[in-house]
């Protein structure tokens, strides 16, 4: 294997590992570990939204991420974000990782408080100082089970009430 092929392989591996690590740290509520994974401007797009618009400052993104997800660390609540089947495309200092996902969100052990989504994550990365940074997270659900919107909204409300 020549040196360029080896560099390309390392790039693909690092990009893929960054995406997996992001979702693992999200499930572990390790906000301080997530922040350095992000570019200075980031966007989360959901559904068919074009993720090429509306980048926000990293601090705003982190604040919103915590507000939406920290409530899952209260009581019997939790999340699981599994990502698999990564396809990594590298183009110079940009990369796109497309993968399948299975995500679960729950507020309690009650069946009505449990929701799952499956679909695709499309994650855009940029290279900054020899390391990959997440710039766009595009979540494209294919299938929902349970009242995901209610579960997610309630988790955010629980976190807000916990901090008021």
TrEMBL record:
InterPro entries per the UniProt record, alphabetical: NTF2-like_dom_sf, SnoaL-like
Signal peptide: none
Residue ranges of domain SnoaL-like in the record: 9-136
Superkingdom as given in the UniProt entry: Bacteria
Protein name listed in UniProt: SnoaL-like domain-containing protein
Organism for this UniProt entry: Caballeronia novacaledonica
């Amino acid at each position: 294997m020549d040196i360029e092929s080896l560099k390309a392989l390392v790039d693909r591996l690092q990009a893929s590992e960054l995406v997996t690590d992001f979702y693992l740290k999200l499930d572990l509520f390790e906000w301080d570990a997530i922040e350095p994974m992000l570019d200075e401007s980031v966007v989360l797009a959901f559904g068919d939204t074009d993720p090429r618009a509306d980048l926000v400052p990293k601090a705003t993104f982190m604040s919103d991420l915590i507000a939406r997800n920290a409530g899952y660390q209260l009581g019997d609540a939790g999340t699981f974000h599994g990502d698999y089947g990564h396809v990594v495309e590298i183009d110079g200092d940009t990369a796109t990782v497309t993968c399948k996902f299975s995500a679960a969100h729950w507020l309690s052990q009650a069946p009505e408080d449990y929701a799952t989504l499956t679909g695709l994550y499309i994650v855009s990365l940029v290279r900054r100082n020899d390391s990959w940074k997440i710039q766009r997270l595009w979540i494209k659900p294919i299938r929902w089970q349970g009242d995901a919107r209610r579960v997610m909204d309630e988790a955010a409300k629980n976190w807000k009430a916990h901090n008021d």
